[in-house]
Automatic annotation (TrEMBL):
The organism's taxonomic lineage, starting at the top: Eukaryota, Haptista, Haptophyta, Prymnesiophyceae, Prymnesiales
Assigned keywords, A-Z: Calcium, Endoplasmic reticulum, Glycoprotein, Isomerase, Repeat, Rotamase, Signal
Residues annotated as domain PPIase FKBP-type: 41-136
InterPro entries in UniProt: EF-hand-dom_pair, EF_Hand_1_Ca_BS, EF_hand_dom, PPIase_dom_sf, PPIase_FKBP, PPIase_FKBP_dom
Domain of life, source organism: Eukaryota
Signal peptide range: 1-18
Catalysed reactions, as listed in the record: [protein]-peptidylproline (omega=180) = [protein]-peptidylproline (omega=0)
Entry EC number(s): 5.2.1.8
SUPFAM superfamilies: EF-hand, FKBP-like
EC primary class: isomerase
Coiled coil: none
Protein's recorded name: peptidylprolyl isomerase
Annotated GO MF terms: peptidyl-prolyl cis-trans isomerase activity
Amino acid sequence: MLSRLVALGIVLAATASAAELKVTQYDGPTECDEANKVKSGDLLGMHYTGTIDESSATGVKGKQFDSSRVRGVVFDTKIGVGAVIPGWDQGLIGLCKGAKAILVIPPDMGYGEKGAGDDIPGGATLNFDVEVMTLTTPPEEPSLFAELDVNEDDRLSPAEVLAFFQKRNPDMMALPEGLMENEDNDKDGFISWDEFSGPKGKTPPKKDEL
């Protein structure tokens, strides 16, 4: 009985381990300033080679299915916003510009049970040899919320929103139908920073300390 439990524990441990995202850097800088470290929202230029990992339960182990290096074209993408598979969105965060690393990506952070095309079957564990070639942090988007919040109380009243529209159309006498209803999720008569769906920056406006 004990031997069976031990064997079961080994199997469960191996299964849990196989389900984890693994990032192993093998070349390039391991320390860098924040400007040269990959963060969510950064624009990256990447070289990569994708293969079926040796630990994969499906697919031809070691088979290459894609490579920017073979094409000779750097792959550009934005990280942390869902533009790529979750294994990339999470696995590339924290790497420095110039870093080379191996990402071993479990199915649920890759292409899941559906797979992708003929070379990546459902349930495949993927192996990506990646290199961070370029890294750009885009400027923070302007805050329309701050512009509308004339009295700086961190919420938008119907009057403030209407005043904004009237700057562009003096003849406008009422808000577009449904605007407040769609934005004011808690129905308190105001639009908070969290509720506001327009450009508002990454963080709420800071109040001056007394």
